[in-house]
Design a protein that fits this description.
Order of helices and strands: EHEHHEHEEEH
Mean pLDDT: 84
Radius of gyration: 19 Å
Low-confidence stretches: 125-131, 133-141
Strand content: 5-15%
Length: 195
């Protein structure tokens, strides 16, 4: 096994009392456990040559989650909780001297980055459409003040959409190239699940 990617924690960050909630101390211990499976010489799964990469939980779009809660049963994951779990993942990575993709901070930076805004007016019916061109986006994306911009990367406030998955893929590849250049992917892969 050349590379192991450990990426969990979003469901753990659900509000206390929600089905998937896991206290932050238990989350940290779970991360340590999975890393130790490969790093501890006493482990039956010890694999000193396996590279381990941690990924933080993503930021969450609380307004999107609230909209889903009105429709059905969606667990609440506050962005502040997601941030705390992301910080914990970074701390565990530091404890083991492991690289970490900080997906939380990357999404937050993009959601809150200044964007060029333009308004296009449909002369036929008088409707206006606002679009934004983010610095790293190849095509304009619809601005959603309704969801504070999180819908650019999240499908429902929690799960990554196509752009979110592509961002994650790009961050993973960049981290691998930076940390383990010998593992460069030989062929580009696009992370674009159906919408």
């Amino acid at each position: 096994l050349q590379l192991c990617i450990i990426f969990f924690g979003t469901n753990d960050a659900q509000d206390e009392g929600e089905y998937g909630h896991n206290p932050i101390s238990s989350y940290a211990e779970n991360l340590r456990y999975f890393v130790s499976l490969l790093r501890d010489p006493q482990s039956e799964h010890y694999s000193p040559d396996t590279r381990v990469l941690l990924i933080t939980p993503p930021a969450t779009g609380e307004r999107m989650i609230q909209a889903k809660k009105r429709i059905g049963d969606a667990p609440m994951i506050l962005n502040s909780a997601a941030k705390a779990y992301a910080e914990t993942a970074k701390q565990v990575a530091a404890e083991f001297d492991l690289p970490c993709v900080d997906l939380y901070t990357e999404i937050e930076a993009r959601v809150h980055a200044p964007k060029e805004r333009s308004v296009e007016t449909d002369e036929a019916n008088g409707n206006s459409t606002a679009t934004t061109n983010a610095a790293d986006a190849s095509q304009p994306a619809a601005i959603s003040d309704q969801y504070d911009g999180y819908d650019e990367f999240l499908i429902d406030g929690v799960h990554l959409n196509s752009a979110g998955n592509q961002l994650l893929y790009n961050l993973i590849v960049a981290k691998i190239k930076q940390t383990w250049p010998e593992l460069k992917p030989s062929a580009p892969i696009r992370a674009t699940p159906p919408r």
